[in-house]
Amino acid sequence: MIVNGIDTITVTYNLQECGISKSNVIDAMYSKEERYKYKNGEDEIHYAYWTGSFISSEYHTIGVYCSDDRMTINGSIPKFVNGNNFQGIDAEQMGGAFEVLSNVVGADLGSGAVTRVDYASNLFMNHNPKLYYQFFGNSHKFKRLEMDTTLTYKGSRGQARSKVLMDKTVWAKDTKNKIPDFFEDKNIIRFENRLMTSNRIAHALELKNKPTLEDIMRIDNLLKLHDDWKRQYFKIQKQHNIIDFSKYMQKGYYSPNEMIQVYFLTLIQESGDKSFEDLRKFIREEKKFGTGQVGYNNTSRFLKKIKELKSGWIANDNDMVKEIDQAINMTDYML
Known about the structure:
Layout: E1 2-3, E2 5-14, H1 15-18, H2 22-28, E3 31-38, E4 45-55, E5 61-66, E6 70-76, H3 77-82, H4 91-105, E7 113-124, H5 130-133, E8 142-146, E9 150-155, E10 161-167, H6 168-174, E11 188-195, H7 198-205, H8 213-216, H9 219-234, E12 242-243, H10 245-250, H11 256-285, H12 292-313, E13 314-315, H13 319-329, E14 332-333
């Protein structure tokens, strides 16, 4: 399977250093609006700036910001090329897109400083994407946020990174984005690895200096972005162990003790491993389960009991986790 590659990118240029004319930029904007930044608590204008978009006869539109001293291009490169980001672009198409933008501006854009890169892929699944989210647990140094059709892992300030799984088709319909015919009515999970600062991008690419657009477009660095995308996915804890409901439904009779066991294991499954670990941590630290050798024995017996319960009721090969793991593993960057 080929992976979509870079989606959204933010590139900033110092107009004077890059030899870019402010008037050329403003004239080249397809849609534009002049705005003003005021001094704090005053009516006096601090500076004026323009926001809008670039467009070309070959491609579509992409966002642009311009002030007296800098210009920023921000947007989805696949959308600029294809009009949608369901279809990916390869390295040559990405280079062609910025060559077109260079012609629009009248200057080489390769030296711009890259401050954001989103790397993403659309994965075709057998089931509704939302059904997979329940098996995605925590990720170290990330906060897990589940919305209706999106699961986001928001990195700490030091991380400057977000990881997102979304139902791509539903997202497109909600945001009125174009869905190509081939992608209609498909179960598509999109996994995005969003690098939100130049330092975070440089770290992922093993660069000593802040990355430029030329750095990003090198094939070896595109492959590093792909490897980082895959690595960040596998850092998310998955719930491989689930209640074997096929075995559960086949039983003809349940004793009260069996029903309690199944109910207890179902609660563990629904609440996830972290809540179970938090309970164990509380018991250990507050010494509520005995102390010394006695406490150790009680804890050991408790874990042994849980293990015995799981051996009878838990399946260790969650097919849905295996399916999406395999889809990630089979991806290659589209050269």
